[in-house]
Amino acid sequence: MLVIHVSVECFPLAKVGGLADVLGALPRYQRKFGVDAWVVSPFYDKPFTQDRSLSLIHEGDFMQGSEHLRYEVLKEEGDPLGFPLYLIRIPGKLDREEVYCYPDEAEQWIAFQHAFLHWMKSAEIMPDVVNCHDHHVGLLPFFMRHSLEYKGFSEVKTLFTIHNGQYQGWMNWNKGILLPKFDTWKWGLLDWAGVINPFAAAIKCCDAFSTVSEGYLQELFEQANGLEDLIQAEQAKGYGIVNGIDDLYWNPELDTLIDKTYRRSTVKSGKKTNKKEFCERYKIDSTVPLLAFIGRFALEKGADLLPQILEHIFTNQDNKISIFILGSGDERIQESLSALLDRYEDRFAVFFGYNETLAHQVYAAADLLLMPSRVEPCGLNQLYAMKYGTIPIVRKIGGLKDTVLDITEDGGYGFVFLNAEVNEATEAVERALQVIEDPKALHKIRQREMELDFSWDKSAQQYIKLYNQL
Ligand code: ADP
Fold it and tell me: Using CA positions, which residue lies closest to atom 12 of ligand 1?
């Protein structure tokens, strides 16, 4: 079975969040189970494309509105990622440094999807399934059924995987002219509330859609940024498949990015060394529990709550704690956090920006990881944390709800709170501090969570089962 994953992020080519982690791992695990899984991504002007050997395998051109676009398809030689990676390069559109935030993003993703189908058709590649990831490639199921040129793919099954339903790729109808010519009677399939909504179009036209956790699927029925009715109407096509951990890359036993590798049996000394080295580098106290936050400074992640949560935690004299934050995004949040730095010098440190190596070091060094998310389709941070023996403190939402069991439950190994509110998050942190004060309790929780199986094996097989069903 040939399955082509189409996505604008893929680790280590281009990563902004969890979407990249999934694309960098899932296809490799699927190949392990006999599926011929490929990834097709845009070309970016990034270290990856400069350092790797890429060979040109196809060239073509098409019209986008009145613009004549030429594209190239490049393939990474030798498949070092464990799966074939194909990159579509369109000079001026898909050859830039960043993944997102360009004013002509709609034009970029339309061109990417059009070039993908143009290449498939010209090279006579007929996959069994096209697995589209998020709204950037949400128009593909429509094009494959209703565009005049690409209707030949109408029998190819499509799975639309939702990593984040908040962003839907809305574009004004004046962009309609840029799409490959389609059966105009079908315009309603592209439309939601008077604009072209690629996310909605994908839900309407795909054979099935999946979310990255079961919990998130249920939540989308109630809260889907305006698409609740549509998702409810199409719920028979919906599946929840939780993300996994890439054991090759996120594994304290093999991790070359951390100060000292360790396993379940050596977690105590391993984490102690990593924490000591880390705290020395950031000049924070290593003799008290270390709490961390990693992520985008966005409302979804509850990052706006962090300054107040920290303030509450630090002003309570009973709390013996150091805190480290790694993230970037909203500048106001950054400013509020910066303002706390001078006041809590030896207890609080931050790194503003994106730093993959540092993320590994934080998971290895921290005792606790806080995730006060408002929306969390799956959440990979809590899974990585647990793999590294770091205890998650999470809001009960989406994938966090599915993967973290509160310590008060039978066999529990985390701390769960109900609402994304400062007081509740603070209380959960204080509850965790009290529990881990006892080294035996801390050790027991670490042992429990490091034993959990969040490997991709199970989820990769669930995807394959779904492809077969289609
Ligand atoms: P998202 O909604 O951002 O995709 P996920 O939890 O699914 O959230 O995935 C987040 C991924 O991005 C994880 O691999 C996490 O370690 C990583 N990450 C987030 N922010 C940063 C950062 N500032 N530096 C390094 N890695 C980060």
Answer: 17
